[in-house]
Design brief:
The structure holds 2 protein chains of 2 kinds. Chain A is built from 2 helices and 10 strands, in the order αβαβββββββββ. Chain A is mainly beta. Chain A has one domain: Porin, CATH 2.40.160.20. Chain A starts with a helix and ends with a strand. Chain B contains 1 helix and 11 strands; from the N terminus they run αβββββββββββ. Chain B has one domain. Chain B has a 6-stranded antiparallel beta sheet, with no helix packed on it. In chain B, strands 1, 2, 5, 9 and 11 form a 5-stranded mixed beta sheet that branches. The chains are: A mainly beta, B mainly beta. Chains A and B meet through α1, α2, β5, β6 and β7 of A and α1, β7 and β8 of B.
């Protein structure tokens, strides 16, 4: 899919997002200036998220890839929302030329979010978040590419190549926009949309993995969407 | 509350587009690797006395690989350039050229990368770097290596002078 098409869809989604959040943005009350300066706790609230999108994405990718992930996010100084995400992912794909690719690996992402949504007051019944943030992602994994066949038609020679147990470590950066809506007390539902950029791509002509756990299909940049169910404690 | 959920559902459904548009599985890269040879001659400009290199057209050409029964070019007429397959898993390939009535043997010596990886859809190709080209000199006067890198891009690699 062309980068241009993806950008248009992303812009469209973000514009819908602003319509939704317009209902929730309130200005600060003027009497806040007179209130006693409250002690801001260092850490407050921990929320555990589980990615429920594998239910959809594994079906949509035709069972070629899988990714399971969870996250832990907290509120720091009522301003920052640091987050750690971790998971397992893998792929098993055979191309039209019968070349097979298999990988399984573990990934980790860490970063922080900022809440763009203003709360009218802290005692509101349901707290919703519209986050914008960044991540650094990391994955180390093994992969195999098998059955690459080279034929020399004129000279009548054939060779088959197998590359087993290749080890790879990938690092990438992400910009993330997320929504977390508190649907009932302490239970959150939401989604995240991510733009990922690989920091150490493979050089041309070298064997490279088709799928990178936590990142997606190997490309200099990729998009990702998660649907998330969370619990705050 | 209801409109909020409606927006949420719309966004979720639209986000599916990001997943449903998958890339085509076909290999879209050209995987043909051949050595491209151009026939040239030096022509003297009578007024300036300067030689320039111009294209040479061979009236009838036959080319086959040494010890290979099938002809790569079989009585091709008015030929100025040709493309030949190098042995993929070797460092040397020999060809027999017949220019009109005259026969020459051409030998190309090179190094090979047998598995230059393109992608999962395309697999690998064998690419070469020409180190030397030698030949008999019945029709062929001299040979120039213009570009030693033989891969899946089209460019003139060797010039044969008469």
């Amino acid at each position: 899919m062309l980068i241009i098409q993806r950008l248009h869809i992303f812009k469209f989604l973000i514009s819908i997002l602003f319509v939704v959040s317009a209902n929730n943005i309130f200005a600060q009350e003027p009497n806040q200036k007179d209130s006693i300066k409250e002690k801001v706790p260092l850490f407050k609230d921990f929320r555990v998220d589980v990615d429920i999108s594998p239910i959809f994405t594994t079906l949509l990718s035709g069972g070629e890839t899988y990714s399971l992930e969870g996250a832990l996010q907290t509120t720091l100084l009522n301003k920052y929302y640091p987050i750690v995400e971790a998971g397992l992912a893998g792929a098993n794909k055979t191309s039209l030329e019968d070349i097979n690719f298999v990988t399984n690996g573990f990934f980790l992402r860490a970063g922080t979010d900022f809440n763009v949504l203003k709360q009218k007051n802290m005692n509101k019944k349901f707290t919703n978040y519209f986050f914008v943030g960044a991540r650094i992602g990391f994955s180390t994994f093994g992969y195999s590419i098998n059955n690459i066949i080279l034929t020399d038609d004129y000279w009548n020679e054939t060779k088959t190549y197998n590359f087993d147990n290749q080890i790879s470590a990938k690092v990438w950066m992400e910009i993330v926009a997320s929504i977390r809506v508190e649907i009932v007390k302490n239970i959150y539902l939401g989604w995240s949309i991510r733009n990922k950029n690989l920091l150490n791509p493979d050089s041309e002509g070298k064997i490279s993995p088709w799928y990178i756990p936590g990142f997606g299909k190997n490309d200099t940049s990729a998009w990702g969407v998660n649907y998330v169910l969370g619990y705050k404690f | 509350m209801k409109t909020k959920y409606l927006f949420f559902v719309i966004i979720v459904t639209l986000a599916q587009f990001l997943f449903s548009c998958t890339t085509d599985d076909e290999c879209r890269t050209d995987k043909t690797v051949e050595v491209d040879i151009a026939f040239k001659q030096k022509s003297l400009n009578a007024t300036t006395g300067v030689y320039s290199i111009v294209s040479l057209s061979i009236d009838s050409l036959w080319v086959q690989g040494l010890d290979n029964d099938s002809l790569i070019y079989n009585n091709k007429k008015s030929v100025t350039s040709i493309s030949l397959p190098l042995k993929k898993f070797s460092q040397q390939t020999d060809y027999i050229f017949r220019f009109n009535d005259v026969t020459d043997t051409l030998t190309v010596l090179y190094t090979t990368n047998e598995n230059y990886y393109l992608s999962l859809e395309c697999g690998c190709i064998a690419i070469h770097n020409i180190s030397e080209v030698v030949s008999t000199q019945h029709f062929i006067d001299s040979i120039s290596i213009i570009n030693p890198d033989v891969n899946n891009t089209t460019t003139t690699h060797i010039q044969i002078f008469n």
